[in-house]
Design a protein that fits this description.
Strands 2-1-3-4-5-6 form a 6-stranded parallel sheet, with helices on both faces. The chain has 14 helices and 19 strands. The protein is an alpha/beta fold. Bound molecules: S-adenosyl-L-homocysteine, iron/sulfur cluster and FE3-S4 cluster (F3S).
């Protein structure tokens, strides 16, 4: 075990990915170094409870930790995030090795709590209270300046969709102060970021809660888009019912706003949408898609879909497939419905049997494969720009062999404005990470594209 070292295991959404990165940076500011699981003095499991069996996942992660660290009592194990919020001190009973449980707001206090627990080996702590204000985190400088930065603009959700646990685990919606958001964006841009993704569970409702400062989502977007140095702006996740005309028009008026929107549909049947408490119907969703495409004709949409919601009939399910076709989603995340504690649908009758859910999920995913393939194929021949992320993973595993001498080109991976990974050969020996490179798309793979440096920029 290396003293003052840490290891973070992350489950869940981008919020958790972002929280884990912050935890790491905050610990490093206190003199900790990242380490492999087997060597770490502090192990943090940052958890998600949105779908099936999250508690088992946490327990099996704890089992892995015990195995890797040899059950060493000197290793400080912390559970943070949504399962921590849900179970609280119960986690101490379930796993004696856990000494810190920090929920959605409490995670902001976790770095200090870890220091305290290292000094007091007998102590245990829970940090599971929700705060009144937006839980502002201490500033933590990033280890490596990423070209792409995530910035949180709100926490929690007030929507209470009938299937969802998030309002219980992340708490009520709390908007962050506009000044703090802009400050963090400026900081990331100064460190070298050129792409910013604004994060929240329901971003379009930004400002519409008691911690809001009067700034609307659109006004915030405008201010972020105007920051010098920003080249690409994205946000996730919007709610269709909260996308106002200004939010739609922004796709036409803000040039840095990427032409890609993840817009969760969940289901195509109006009866199911009503029971889900989504507060839009299929016609409203289609109108929104039409307006978005009118504002930005090259906009691509992706979505989240749930199959087998209680009471979903075959024709309800067919309506979901029809909507997928009508919207032409480039990609989607799709899930079988599962009961979540506290969520209203847990008490709904007519649960769909798992085998029916799985069969529907397979049909849905087969359709999505076709739609995705069609979308990727249509990109072939187009000129676009990539934000380079690094060498292609394949390349790293097996460097190009070129008859002995050093390779003249290496396979790199970047993201196009749609967030699609694109592989492109680039001159060897240089670090292209973080640069914007114009390319022409020459081929489509199953989930990615292949490009060549655009002729004009050669
Ligand atoms: N705030 C976002 C995302 C919430 S969670 C939104 O409003 O869309 C991410 C996705 O998990 C949801 O969009 C939904 O598709 C899925 N999900 C949430 N609860 C679920 C449940 N009980 N069963 C299956 N999928 C669920
Ligand atoms: Fe969950 Fe609905 Fe809130 Fe999304 S909008 S986090 S699905 S309650
Ligand atoms: Fe999971 Fe919590 Fe995110 S439940 S999806 S980690 S908000």
């Amino acid at each position: 075990m290396q003293p003052r070292s840490y290891h973070v295991i992350t489950f869940g959404c981008q919020m958790n990915v972002h929280d884990s990165a912050w935890l790491g940076a905050a610990l490093e500011a206190r003199g900790f170094a990242p380490a492999e699981l087997a060597d770490a003095e502090v192990v943090i499991i940052n958890t998600c409870s949105v779908r099936e069996k999250p508690e088992q996942k946490v327990m099996s992660a704890l089992g892995r930790v015990r195995q890797a660290t040899g059950g060493d009592g000197r290793v400080l194990v912390a559970v943070t995030g949504c399962v921590a919020q849900q179970l609280g001190a119960e986690l101490f009973d379930r796993s004696p090795q856990v000494r810190l449980v920090a929920g959605s707001d409490g995670i902001t206090e976790a770095p200090g709590a870890i220091e305290r627990l290292l000094a007091e080996p007998e102590a245990r702590l829970t940090l599971c209270a929700f705060t009144e204000d937006f839980p502002e985190k201490e500033a933590a400088p990033r280890r490596c300046a990423d070209a792409s930065a995530l910035v949180t603009i709100m926490q929690g959700c007030d929507n209470f969709c009938a299937y969802c646990i998030v309002p219980f685990t992340r708490g009520r919606q709390k908007s962050r102060a506009t000044s703090a958001i802009l400050e963090e964006c400026r900081q990331r841009l100064a460190e070298g970021a050129i792409e910013i993704t604004l994060l929240g569970q329901n971003v379009n409702a930004f400002g519409r809660d008691k911690t809001g400062d009067g700034t609307s989502f659109f006004r915030l977007l405008e201010q972020v888009a105007a920051l010098p140095g920003l080249r690409r702006l994205r946000y996730v996740t919007p709610h269709p019912k909260d996308m106002g005309p200004e939010d739609v028009a922004a796709f036409g008026s803000l040039p840095t706003l990427c032409p890609r929107l993840h817009l969760p549909l969940q289901a195509g049947s109006d009866a199911v949408l009503r029971r889900m408490r989504r507060r839009y119907d299929s016609a409203g969703f289609l109108r929104l898609v039409e307006d978005l495409r009118a504002a930005r004709p090259d906009l691509a949409l992706s979505t989240d879909l749930i199959v087998g919601f209680p009471g979903e009939t075959e024709s309800d399910f067919q309506a979901t497939l029809d909507m997928m076709e009508a919207c032409g989603f480039m990609s989607s995340f799709s899930f079988c419905y599962s009961d979540r504690p506290g969520a209203a649908a847990t008490r709904f009758p007519d649960k769909v049997p798992p085998e029916v859910q799985h069969e529907r999920l397979q049909r849905l995913q087969a359709l999505q494969d076709r739609l995705g393939r069609r979308w990727l194929d249509a990109r072939v021949g187009v000129e676009t720009t990539l934000l380079m992320e690094g060498k292609s993973p394949r390349q790293e595993a097996a460097p190009a062999k070129d008859g002995g001498g050093p390779p003249r080109e290496e396979d790199w991976q970047g993201r196009d404005p749609y967030g699609v990974p694109v592989h492109v050969p680039l001159p060897a020996g240089a670090d292209h990470t973080g640069s914007l490179i114009p390319v022409q798309i020459v081929a489509a793979k199953r989930h990615s594209l292949v490009g060549r440096v655009a002729p004009a920029s050669r």
